[in-house]
Each structure stands twice: as structure tokens, then as C-alpha cells.
Amino acid sequence: MKDDFCPIYASINLLQEKWTLHIVRSLLEGPRGFNELGRDIGGCNPTTLTQRLERLEASGIVEKTVQSTMPPRTRYTLTEAGLALQGVVDAVDRWGRQFLNAPPTEQGVVQPEVKTPVRQVQVRGT
Amino acid sequence: MKDDFCPIYASINLLQEKWTLHIVRSLLEGPRGFNELGRDIGGCNPTTLTQRLERLEASGIVEKTVQSTMPPRTRYTLTEAGLALQGVVDAVDRWGRQFLNAPPTEQGVVQPEVKTPVRQVQVRGT
DNA sequence: GTATGGCGCTATACTTTGTCAAGCAATCTG
DNA sequence: CAGATTGCTTGACAAAGTATAGCGCCATAC
């Protein structure tokens, strides 16, 4: 299952890194700058954000455009391969809406609506 | 984007933990025992595997059945919510096949087949 | 005018997450 | 009767992620 090159195994390993899918999801809504992106995805620290963007760029998923070095202005956008991750994000979204309940520790939370009566699920922390 | 309870944000955080999607993918093919599962997903260490299974069980995605304590025999299976992750795994699989190329450092690798001419992508390590 | 904050990062020190190896009691395999 | 296998747990360690400060320059606020 892990030997040789297995596309799905490799994909999971790529997308599984912390913040990666959040980054993609944010960029699916349009180009973003570095800090803007970090804020948008919920406060990723700059060190990790740099690493993720480097890997995503090296993998041909994200494109970086430096519009000006000083004062600094950079844009990050999705490539064709990056845009295609919409399918993955949508699948996760559908699953989340249907099966994920707010954990009881959280307050003021709206329960997701379900049309068909499906057993829902509580997210449990680590 | 991170405040309150957002199903997709929470889903990403749940699925993003190392080994989690590999575990789900393996269980989608049928029930597994603890060591069997660890081997199948490519050598996950028992400590992490225990943690992941605990969280997945607490979240209602995986079900654990102890068939015998001594000698030990346990089965892990997917619940309804777990089975529904097939959609996510499929989406990742489709994306991987279409856009992911084997990294050049790896030998004896089969290039994924593409019908439409799409720009493919090289997976880059950290 | 000058203080303030924002831009895109990097460096450093730190915490959290994941890994490796050994080990347990009991059966089953050779 | 030796050795492997089952499902874990423990403890010491390595790797991954985080928080904070700071850089040089420009825009806006005062």
C-alpha cells in the first residue's frame, strides 16, 4: 500500500499536512497575500505558512507572484492542479455538513441541518 | 473562518491528522485488526495508531469490537459516518490520478495515465 | 512631521505531535 | 518446546508546528 508510487497515498500525505487544506480552501475563493492568507485560515504562524506555500508551489499547486519587493507585495494563486482540489474540498464540505455535529463543549453553536435522518456525530478533540 | 462551529473547518482539522485518512481508506476495504491496520497503512507506530483510533471512535467514525481480550483479538470497522468518507477518499483519489506525478527521485515508477491533456505536477517533499 | 500600522517574510526559542523499541500474557505454528 | 503473533502500553526521543520579535519601507492618521 505504501511502496512504489501510489497517487492516492502520495496525495493524502501531501494534503494531510497541517493548514494545507485550509490554505487551498482560502485560495479557492481568490488570490491572497501572505498575511491575509494566514489570518484567513485562522491564524497560521508565518514559519509553517512559508513551508506549506513552498511545498505547494514546488508541487505545482500554488503560484507565487511577487508584485513588489519593497514595500513587499506578493500574491498567491492556485494553478490548474490547485483549482482541481475544489472537488476534494467539496467532498469534505458535504461530509462535514452531513455528519459532523458541534462538540458539546462549544457554546452558541448551530446544529447542521439534515434532510434525511442520518445519525450525526460529535467531533472529539485530541 | 475559524470562529464558531464551522463543519468544513472542523472536518479538515479532524481528517488532517497524520495517518487518519490512510486509516479510513484501509477500513473502507473491510474490517481490520490493530496490527494489521498499522501494517496496511504503511507502518504507523502503535502509539499514534491508538490515538487516532480513539479519536475516530469518539467521533463516531470508527467502531471497535473486542472479540477476545486474551489472546487479544479486536476488529475495527467504519460506522455510517465513516463509510460516507468514501466520497472524500474518492475525490482525493481522482485528483491524485489526474494531477500527481511521481517525484523524479523515485525509480521504477509508472506515470499515471491521463485522457485529456492536463498539466501534471511533481510531488515535492518537505 | 512624526507616530502607527501594515506589507512579506526570517530567526530564534519553545511546545506539541509523532516515532521507536521494548515488553506483556496467551495462544497458535512448526 | 522455540518462535511468531495478537493488541496494545510505557517511556525516551526526534520531528513538526508555534509564538514572538524584528527587518526596511511606505501609507495613512494625527
Give a verbal description of the structure.
Chains A, B: Pfam families: HxlR (PF01638). Chains A, B: It comes from uncultured Truepera sp. Chains A, B: GO terms for molecular function: DNA binding. Chains A, B: Keywords: DNA-binding, Transcription, Transcription regulation. Two copies of one chain form a homodimer. Chain A has two domains: 1-82, Winged helix-like DNA-binding domain superfamily/Winged helix DNA-binding domain (Arc Repressor Mutant, subunit A, Orthogonal Bundle), CATH 1.10.10.10; 85-126, no CATH class. The first copy, chain A, is 44% helix and 13% strand. In chain A, a hairpin with a 4-residue loop joins strand 1 (62-68) and strand 2. In chain A, the strands form two sheets. Chain A has a two-stranded antiparallel ribbon. Chain A has a two-stranded parallel ribbon with strand order 3-4. Chain A has six helices and four strands. The model of chain A is unreliable at 105-115 (pLDDT under 50). Chain A is α+β, with helices and mostly antiparallel strands and 126 residues long. The structure holds a DNA duplex (30 and 30 nucleotides).
CATH topology of the largest domain in chain A: Arc Repressor Mutant, subunit A
The fraction of residues in strands of chain A falls at 5-15%
Give the termini distance of chain A in whole angstroms. 27 Å
Which pair has the most extensive contact? A-B, 65 and 65 residues
Tell me, rounded to a whole number, the average pLDDT of chain A: 86
Spell out the helices and strands of chain A N to C. HHHHEEHHEE
Largest sheet: spatial strand order of chain A: 1-2
> What structural category arises from helix and sheet content of chain A?
alpha+beta
Domain HTH hxlR-type (chains A, B): 6-104
InterPro entries (chains A, B): ArsR-like_HTH (IPR011991), HTH_HxlR (IPR002577), WH-like_DNA-bd_sf (IPR036388), WH_DNA-bd_sf (IPR036390)
GO molecular function, one term (chains A, B): DNA binding
Keywords (chains A, B): DNA-binding, Transcription, Transcription regulation
